[in-house]
Design a protein that fits this description.
four-stranded antiparallel beta sheet, alpha+beta, three-stranded mixed beta sheet, Immunoglobulin-like, Trypsin Inhibitor V, Chain A, 5 helices, about 280 residues, single chain
Length: about 280
């Protein structure tokens, strides 16, 4: 850019000449008009996109929930005793469809009137149809297919009768003989079972039993005693009554997690002393 007064070269966009101090005409307006446009903020576009996507998701979720909602539950109106036309009109008005299940004779309901309905009156249901049973009148004969169907449904509701299988006696003289045989066989079976099983003493204080006195160190430790893999007999010190013979004692201390197996031989009418130190 050249100064119009002195002809010296000045910087582009300068307001006055550095050499002569002359004001450069039109520089303020040019500088004002040459203001660069503001750059668009990319975060605004990102925020707008996020809001649009959120609104679309909300709309889709609301539509899917509306479609997946369960059927409407309604109460079934009472049409028992009404004619078929009145019953169909009342059911249609409340949003149900009418279907006739069967027709049967009735001494208490007029011809063409409703004897019963399913679902029952004042019952909440999501069904769209109501099945009616119509009356044929007091003197009408029930149709054969309907009668067979009703009898079959009643038969299925009855509990089956169980009959115990017993041998049929051909005559009165045979029945006492069979009972007599059964009575005789029972004592024999008991005698055989008693002869095959070894005799066991009634109490543990009889002959063939001895005692085992068990003590452990330290004395303040909680030590449980198990005999021959059975349940716990108690805590030490303890005296256990056992039958004569070889036995296996297990001493268990839960706090220190110590387990010690001790074989012992028990003699009849004698006491065996067992002392073990579990601190080692």
């Amino acid at each position: 850019m050249i100064c119009p007064k002195c002809g010296d070269v000045v910087f582009e966009g300068a307001v006055f000449c550095v050499r002569c101090g002359a004001m450069l005409a039109g520089t303020r307006a040019a500088n004002r008009d040459a203001t660069p446009p503001r750059a668009s903020n990319p975060w605004l576009k990102i925020s707008a996109g996020i809001l649009t996507a959120t609104a679309a998701i909300v709309v889709l979720v609301s539509l899917s929930l509306g479609r997946s909602s369960g059927p409407t539950v309604r109460y079934v109106p009472d049409v028992v005793g009404m004619s078929r036309a009145d019953a169909e009109a009342k059911l249609t008005k409340t949003g149900f469809e009418c279907a006739v299940g069967e027709e049967r004779p009735s001494d208490t309901t007029d011809t063409g009137a409703v004897i019963s309905q399913y679902p029952r009156p004042d019952t909440p249901t999501s069904r769209k149809d109501v099945t009616l049973v119509l009356s044929l009148g007091p003197d009408a004969k029930e149709p054969e297919p309907a009668r067979k169907l009703r009898q079959a449904s009643v038969a299925t509701k009855r509990p089956p009768t169980t009959t115990s299988a017993r041998p049929a006696a051909t005559s009165k003289s045979e029945k006492p003989a069979q009972q007599h045989q059964v009575v005789r066989s029972r004592p024999r079976a008991r005698q055989t079972a008693a002869a095959s099983s070894p005799a066991k003493p009634e109490t543990s204080s009889g002959p063939g039993y001895g005692s085992v006195a068990i003590e452990t160190q330290p004395g303040d430790w909680e030590v449980w005693v198990y005999v021959d893999g059975g349940p716990a007999r108690g805590k030490c010190p303890i005296t256990v009554r056992l039958s004569a013979g070889e036995h296996s004692l297990v001493l268990w201390e839960p706090r220190q997690q110590k387990r010690l197996a001790v074989p012992v031989t028990v003699e009849a009418d004698r006491t065996v002393s067992v002392r073990r130190d579990l601190s080692a």
